[in-house]
Amino acid sequence: MAQLDVQAKLAILADAAKYDASCASSGTAKRNSRGGKGVGSSEGMGICHAYAPDGRCISLLKILLTNSCIFDCAYCINRKSSNVRRARFTAQEVVRLTLEFYKRNYIEGLFLSSGIIRSSNYTMEQIVEVARSLREDHDFRGYIHLKTIPDADPELVRQAGLHANRVSINVELPTTSGLTRLAPEKDVRQIEGAMREMKASIADADDAAKRFKSAPKFAPAGQSTQMIVGADAASDADIVRRSSSLYDRFGLRRVYYSAFSPIPDASAVLPLKRPPLMREHRLYQSDWLMRFYGFTSAEVRSATDAQGMLPLDIDPKLAWALKFRDGFPVDVNRAPKEMLLRIPGLGTKAVDRIMSSRRWRKLRLDDVARLTLSIAKVRPFITTLDWRPTFLTDRTDLRMLVAPRQQQLELFTA
Ligand code: SF4
Predict the structure, then answer these.
(1) Which NCBIfam families match (predicted)?
(2) Which residues constitute the domain of residue 350?
(3) pLDDT tens profile 68-117
(4) Distance 188 CA to ligand 1 centre (A)
């Protein structure tokens, strides 16, 4: 590997980290002083935004320790056979960079992942060393999200949890057959074993914290994972089923979905085109239905078509309501919260407002309209003191009436 300065390594390793969606990230607005250099510039530095457990949006330095990897996962730009420029940080370089960015107020924490160097244990030792040094040598109190290497020694993974706020272990693909085909060196049992151990360690730490004030914290922001969408033949129904099982079995805080994007010099086993980004969005919406709206995985899957795919033109809650119209209209003045949460167009906050307002008075259509972006979408599915959607709920063209209008994009905008 050619000798590179830290700036050059940062450019390569921040760029390589952008393919990892498991810290919900978005590019930061560039703070570009003097052509990307100079004080205050964050251009090209891999700063992403993530949400802390308390809901705050925080900036993280998102980098890889190295983009060299001994594995050859077909979908990954860092795989052994990929023809990309390689770079590698030392643990101390990452520590220094994190502290310097932190002191300049560019970031509030670090997201660190890595290709596998030499062996899983060696890589995990390096990752742990970064977090250990930040916490113990420099008393770093910022947020740390570490990606763990699934078949690393459980003791190393446990040490990662002692220093990090969040740890993630990527399942990568929704089906075992997809993983076997595209990432043959990975083993679903090892990945799930690591998640199981992480769940147990988090639960032990929670128990200890209830009994002893001084008990050490362990991954207080929990564990998460990432699934690549569209690299294999898995349908949306397969993905929803897998996510639900991961949430139930391993107590994950989040499953992140990342639409597969064709990479330079891609393996021939991969599709040539990326899936529509809207597919990723619909999967996030279905994930929210399971986590916040009380939908079971089977209910979300029942909103898919014969091929197991969610519609792209309407959201999964609306798709479900259109399929199961016999449960509607719902009386917003009397229905239990679980049913209100199933009304298309009503979010959790709107439902809470309805629940508290209706204790004092009967709600009219106008009252509901004030709580939603589109009363046209909600109307066919509710009754209020002054509204009953006679025949509307059963109309054969209801989907057309409530689907968002397709907008013709302008070729030239002012
Ligand atoms: S192990 Fe991770 S970094 Fe290495 S090729 Fe597979 S996905 Fe890429």
Answers:
(1) rSAM_link_UDG (TIGR03916)
(2) 316-402
(3) 999 999 989 899 998 899 999 999 999 999 999 999 999 999 999 999 99
(4) 14
